[in-house]
Amino acid sequence: MSAVYRLGGEGCSYFQQGRCTRTFNRDEQDQARCQLLDARRKMGVKTLDRLERLKRLADEDDREVARRHVINQNIKAISALTCPGFVASGGDGSLCLHQHLIYCLMLLPGCQGRCDYYLRRRDHRDQEGRAG
Ligand code: SF4
Ligand code: SF4
Q1: Number of domains in the chain
Q2: pLDDT digits (tens, 9 = 90+) for 7-62
Q3: Would you say the CB of residue 89 lies under 6 angstroms from ligand 2?
Q4: Does any domain span residue 30?
Q5: Is 61 strand, coil or helix?
Q6: 10 occurs within a structural domain
C-alpha cells in the first residue's frame, strides 16, 4: 500500500515562513504576541502619560525643556529594549524578521501541510491558473 502525503501549505493565506498564522484561540493569540512590540508599546504609553502630565507646568519654557527630556529618555529606553530572538529584517533595523502583525512567528505553530482551513492565496491561484 502506498503512503499518503499531505500537500504543502505554502500557497495558504495563513502560511508565513513555515508557520500557521490562523488562530482564533485567545490564549494562543496572547502567548504569541511579540514581546518586544508589547514592551515598546508599554513604554510609549508611559511616555505619553508623562507628556500629558507636563501640561500642568505653568511656564512654557520649563514645559519645553521637560518635554525634550522626556522624549530623549523615551528614545534611549526604547533603544535599550531587546529580545533574544530578534533578527533585523533590514531597513532601519528596528523591525524583526519574525514579526507578523503583532505576533511572533516563532511562537506560532508550524504549518503541518494543507488542512481543512487552507485558504488559497490570490497570487498562488494566479500561478496555478497559469500553470494549468
Ligand atoms: S523574535 Fe522577533 S518577533 Fe519574536 S518576540 Fe522577539 S522581537 Fe518579537
Ligand atoms: S494549510 Fe492549514 S495549517 Fe497550513 S497555514 Fe494554512 S491553515 Fe495553517
Answers
A1: 1
A2: 889 999 999 999 999 987 899 899 999 999 999 999 999 999 999 999 999 999 99
A3: no
A4: yes
A5: helix
A6: no
Q: Is the CB of 33 under 6 A from ligand 2?
A: no
Please indicate whether residue 103, judged by its CB atom, sits closer than 6 Å to ligand 2.
no
118 part of a folded domain? no
Ligand 1 centre distance from Cα of residue 18 (Å)? 16
User: What global pTM score does this model have?
Assistant: 0.81
Residue 117 within any structural domain of the chain: no
Domain hosting residue 100, numbered range: 25-108
Distance in Å from the first CA to the final CA of the chain: 30
Whole-angstrom distance, CA of residue 29 vs CA of residue 111: 16
79-124 residue pLDDT tens: 999 999 999 998 787 899 999 999 999 999 999 999 999 999 987 6
Report how far residue 31's alpha carbon sits from residue 28's, in angstroms, rounded to the nearest whole number: 5
